[in-house]
Amino acid sequence: MHVRIDQELCRGNGACVVAAPNVFDYDEGTDRGTVLMPDVPASEEANVRMAAMHCPTRALAVVEP
């Protein structure tokens, strides 16, 4: 699985960081989310799917292999 954040859609809500803190972080400089691990390990896949479902602006793009 691969994940990215569309920075134009992201509003820094933080839902991704709450759902998957090992994969996402909040960048105070841009007030946006950032991806720490674009290639998501299997142990984090469920958390990333949850983050994508709860993103209010649908800024997360999840690509399944």
Automatic annotation (TrEMBL):
Keywords from the named record: 3Fe-4S, Electron transport, Iron, Iron-sulfur, Metal-binding, Transport
Family annotation (Pfam families): Fer4_15
Molecular function terms, GO-annotated: 3 iron, 4 sulfur cluster binding; electron transfer activity; iron ion binding
Family matches, as Gene3D superfamilies: 3.30.70.20
Record carries keyword NAD: no
Highest taxon of source: Bacteria
Domain 4Fe-4S ferredoxin-type intervals: 1-29
Classification via InterPro entries: 3Fe4S_ferredoxin, 4Fe4S_Fe-S-bd, Fe-S_cluster_ET
The protein's required cofactors: [3Fe-4S] cluster
Name under which the protein is recorded: Ferredoxin
Organism classification: Bacteria, Bacillati, Actinomycetota, Actinomycetes, Pseudonocardiales
